Each structure stands twice: as structure tokens, then as C-alpha cells.
Amino acid sequence: MFGLILLWNLTKKMLLNFHHSMFDFRCGCPHQLKNMSIRGLKKKQPKTFKVRIITVDAEMEFSCEMKWKGKDLFDLVCRALGLRETWFFGLQYTIKGMCTWLKMDKKVLDQEIPKEDPISFHFLAKFYPEKVEEELLQEITQHLFFLQVKKQILDEEIYCSPEATVLLASYAVQAKYGDYDPNFHEPGFLAHDELLPKRVLRQYQLTAEMWEEKITAWYAEHRGIARDEAEMNYLKIAQDLEMYGVNYFPIAQNKNHTDLLLGVDAKGIHIYSINNRFSPNKSFEWSSIRNISCSEKELTIKPLDKKAEVFKFFSSQLKVNKLIFQLCIGNHDLFMRRRKVDSIEIQQMKAQAREEKARKKMENQRLAREKQLREEAERAKEELERRLFQLEDEARQANEALLRSQEAAELLAEKAQIAEEEAKLLAQNAAEAEQERQRLELTALKSKEEKRLMEQKMREAELIAVKLVKESDRRAKEAEHLKQDLHEAREAERKAKQKLLDITRLNYPHMAKYPQYCPGDSRDAIFDKGSIKLDLKDIDLKRLSFEIERERLDYLEKSRKFEDRLKELKSEIHALKLEEKQAGLCSHWNEVLSSLDHSLDHSLGSAPSWMKTFETGDSLDVNLQRPFPAYLLNTASSWPCTNKTQHMVPVEKSSSQANSLAANSVGTGARKQIIKVQQHDSDVIYI
């Protein structure tokens, strides 16, 4: 910034010189111009050397004439900066590790300056005001003091408490960034700024974010403070610090020891201990000092009170003594100037400063009003934008709602159409269901009728089975009677044969022993009587055998008819079962089939007892599968029982019946006859 100010001042000066030369050229006579040009040609260009001036925040380079004094260079720099309060500043350089100020009354090149090209000088404040608010009139002066004091605090040349450093940092941020704006000054915007001394950062274990938060909290309260006002507030706080504006030099009360510090500031001379720079052990105000003298390494301070003790001290070098003496003279002169009536220049500067402050105040007020109006306009704009956005959002939502309503209407129309189709389908299904219901009712009526018929047939079958049982019982009783008759006949035959033999032995004893000697007629006569009785008895036995055979055949015929009847009933039941299985009547038919199965087992399983008469050594094997099982049907077949079981039923036969049956065979002896009754998958029973 000050570089730009310097360039502007230089440009302005060059433009003024150019305008003056152009004016002289326009108004002058030709011979005058000729004389000027001749003198210019004859005049030699002066020799120059380059100088670099380093301020707190900028650098400048100048070309200086060889004969220039320190004041000439200093005035050039002050003009470049636009600085009028020149009595606070000076040009400092470093030689042999010691900081020295350029003397104003001596030539620059005649002084002990560094031999370098360009020669570097630091433009710094050499003397400090007692009250910054009253003495610093120009803004540039105030800004330079602000930058230098800030640097001294950060470099720890001026001690400052941690709380004060945070407050000073907030004013520095206000001077640099202006008013705090949370939308613009986001977290981390102070990351690249050096605002706190390293001693404070080491003393407290806080992160950079925490320090920034503390500084920002103070910074937000400085809203509305201008840059120059923030810098002035910074200097007001800094001038109350103990080390503000004090130049320290090591001294000793004798030539051998250096155990004290001498401090020179705007108020006077202070003596400090080597380890304490805050509280002086002894102070000499400028108003109480009568004389200060310097001779080689000794410096003498004579108080105004002649009775008071003269203070003498020694420094390490003569240059240090001379530097202390210069600082004491300069501070004392400023002290005396502050207590005198201001000069006309100072009065003009103060008047200009007041006018400038009033103008800046009015400007700041105008800017504040404009800023307030702009903020209000921006708020109104934001409100209008928000309202516009809200209206647009509402319009968008209304459009979306309209689209959703249209989509909902289309969806409802589709749903209505689908519902109508579903209603038609339901009506059709209802009609079909009604038809199915009617069909089921008819089927139920039919099934009830068939059930009634089936029950009637079942009762008939049970009656037939009962009749067969009764008939079998009757046949069994008859067989028992026949068996008893047969037994009695055999017993009578045996007795007759025995009697015949007895009679033969009694009447013809010799015939009994020697029958070959008996006459033929008599022998024939004897055996004819027995043969007649035997023939009669054989005829009775044959007649009984024929009757038994006829009864057996009748029983077999009735059994065959009964089986045929059961087959018909089974086929009818099977057909009804297939029809009514779909209607859920399988359980009823299972009960019916179980009852039929039980009756059939009872009718066929209880063979008549007269059949046991055929158990005279022969056996009857019957391979019979139960036609109606006693358990439920499975899903593999309508008849669940697929395995075939064989039941061996022994039957007794009488000897005569065996003989009659054996007549059809080759041998005459009794043989085993096997009658196989088997049920195939086709449910046909054959013998």
C-alpha cells in the first residue's frame, strides 16, 4: 500500500516538474531556450548511488547524489510516503551487529554505513509519543506506528499478557478484514495470519481452531469500527504496556561489571535490573533532569536539584554511549515541544487532521447509512428472493400436485376399468358359482339318493350275509347229523361184520380155519348174506355222500352268486366313489366300504362247519385277498391294498366223498386237493 503511495507521490512530483518545464517552454524566448540547452549540455550529471528503504510492509529504492546528507535522503523518503510528522521517524542501519541511526547533518557516504549496493536502511519510528490519540495526526503516521508496535509485540520485544494479545489480535483483524461476516469469514480464514506471540502459543496448549474461535469472538464485537479507528484502539492498548517505546541498553555503575539496564522513552530515563524490564529501580523524568553529558564510555545525568546525587554509568562501547545520548536529546526535545505552544505548522496539521477526521467521520456515517440501506435492500432482496423461491416452490408443488392428481385420476380410471372388468369377472364367476352350486345341489341330491340306494343295497347284502350265515349254521347242523349217522352206520357195519365172523366161527368152525375145504355153495351162501347187508349199507353211504356233495355244490353256487352280487355292488360303489370323491364324500364311502368289508369277511371267513368234514387228510388252500379293506383309500389307487395275501383254509372231507371225488382221478387213495381263490388287480375273483 505504501509502495503505491510512494509511486503516486513520485509520479505527482514528476508531473509537476513536467508541467513547469512545459510552462517555461511555452512562455520563454528562443534565446533563453538556447541558453538553457547550452547550460544543460555543459552541466555534468551528478554521481549517484542506490539506496533501498525498507518500511514495515514495503520496500523502495532511490538514487541519491553523492553529496546528499542524511536529511536529504530522509526528506525524500518522507515525501515519497506522504509523511509530514517526520520527527518520530529515522533511518536505521546495522553495522558490526549494532543498530545505529543515520545522522541527519552529515553526508550519507561519510557515515559508517554498510558497503553494499544498494545500501539498505530501515525506515522506523525512533521516538514514541506519550499519548498516541493526541499526537499522531496523520493516518500514515498512525498506520506505521501500528505496524511497528504490532511487529514488536509478535517478536516479543514488548511483553503483553495473553488476554491483551487476544484483544489486540481482534483489533488487528478488524483493521485488516473489516466488519465480521459469518457468511464470508468462514472457519480457518485466520490460518495464514500471525496474530499471537509464540510465547503465548507455547504457554497454552490450545489448537489453532481454539485460538481462532477466541479471536473471532472479540472480532465480532468490533462491528462498525473503521480501519484507522481499529489501529488507534490497538495503539491505545499498546501504549499502556510497560515495555512500550523503551530502548534498552546494558550499562554498569563501574567499568568492570554490566549488571543494569538503561531504558530511554518519551517520559525519561529509567534504570532496570538485568532480570526485570517491567519495574524500574530508579527513574529520571525529563522535567527533573538538568544536564546529560557524555565522555567516551561514561554518561552523566545531572538532576535539576543541585543537591541531588549525580548519576554516572558506563557502557560497553563509545558508540553505545553516543546512541544513548542521541536518543536522550531527541526524546527530551519532543518532551519540551509537547509542553510548548504548537507551531503554526503543527496547528495547521492538527486542523487538517480534525477536518480529515470529521470528513472521515461523515464519510463513515454516510458509508454506514449506505451500508445499512444496502443491507436493508439486500435483506429485502433476499426476502423477495425467498418469497419468490417460496412462490416458485409452491407453484412447483402445485404443478407436482396437479401432475400427481392427473396421474391419480388416470390410475383411478384404470382402477375403475379394472374394477369394472373384475366386477364382470366376478359376476361371471358368481354365475358360474351359482351354476356350480345348483349342480352341487343336484349332485348332493343325487348322492343322497345314491347313498340311500347304497344303504339299501348294503342292508340287502347284510341280509344276504345273515341268511348265508343261518344257512351255513343249518348246513353245519345237518353235517353234524350226517356225520353222526355216518359214524353210527360205520359202527353198525363194524358190529355186523363182527357178528358175522362170530356166527361163522360158531356154525362152521372148520370152515373158519380151513375155508378152502368148504363147499362152494355154502361158502357163497354165507358171504351172500353179509354182502347183501354190506351192499345195503354202501348204498346208504353213497346216498349220503351224494346228498353231501349236492349240498356242497349248492353252497358253492350260492357263494358264487353272492360273490357276483358283491362284485356288482363293488363296481357301483367304485363308480360312485370316483364321482363323489370330488365332492368330499370319501369318508362316507370309506365307512360303507368298511361295513361291506366286515360283512364280506364275516360271510366268507366263517365257512360252514360241515365243510370240516373234508379234513380227512386233505387240505384246501385258498389264496384270497380281502376285497374291501378296513382302512381309508390311498391316493395311488382307488383300491389301497395292492399286496396279495394267501389264506390257507383247511377243509375236511368224508371218506365216501373222498372216494367219489377220487373216482375222477387216477389213483384210488386219498389225495390233497388245493382250491385257490385269488383276487387280481382287475378285482375279478375266480376259483
Automatic annotation (TrEMBL):
All residue ranges annotated as the FERM domain in the record: 49-339
Coiled-coil stretches noted in the UniProt entry, renumbered to this chain: 346-499, 552-579
Family matches, as CDD domains: FERM_B-lobe, FERM_C_ERM
Bilayer topology: Peripheral membrane protein
SUPFAM superfamilies named in the record: Moesin tail domain, PH domain-like, Second domain of FERM, Ubiquitin-like
InterPro entries, sorted: Band_41_domain, ERM, ERM_C_dom, ERM_FERM_C, ERM_helical, Ez/rad/moesin-like, FERM/acyl-CoA-bd_prot_sf, FERM_2
Keyword Transit peptide: no
The protein, known as: Merlin
Source species: Ficedula albicollis
Source organism phylogeny: Eukaryota, Metazoa, Chordata, Craniata, Vertebrata
